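User: Reviewer 2 asked us to show a designed sequence for the structure in our supplementary figure. I'm pasting the structure tokens here. Could you produce the per-position amino acids so we can include them in the response letter?
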């Protein structure tokens, strides 16, 4: 980044209302992490941590069964395509 560009970015940052800075920080931080090899994906995965905490055991079991069925269907379809290829 050139000094001129950096100066323009800082000038724009100074115009942001104080109460909007935490959201802007999160945006910039996530963007920067996405530039680092491996870190962006790790951060995205960790954001999902706890997503299923509020599911009942019954709903979670149903969810897992549906995932297994979808994977099975997807892989069966893929195997059929591969075996019919010339």
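Assistant: Here is a per-position design you can include in the supplement:
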């Amino acid at each position: 980044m050139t000094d001129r560009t950096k100066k323009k970015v800082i000038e724009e940052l100074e115009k942001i209302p104080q109460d909007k800075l935490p959201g802007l920080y999160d945006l910039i931080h996530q963007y920067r992490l996405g530039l680092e090899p491996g870190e962006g994906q790790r951060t995205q995965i960790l954001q999902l941590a706890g997503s299923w905490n509020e599911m009942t055991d019954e709903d979670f079991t149903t969810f897992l069964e549906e995932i297994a069925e979808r994977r099975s269907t997807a892989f069966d379809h893929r195997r059929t395509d591969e075996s019919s290829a010339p």
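For the response letter, you might also mention the following. The chain is about 75% helix and 0% strand. The chain has two domains: 1-49, 52-86.
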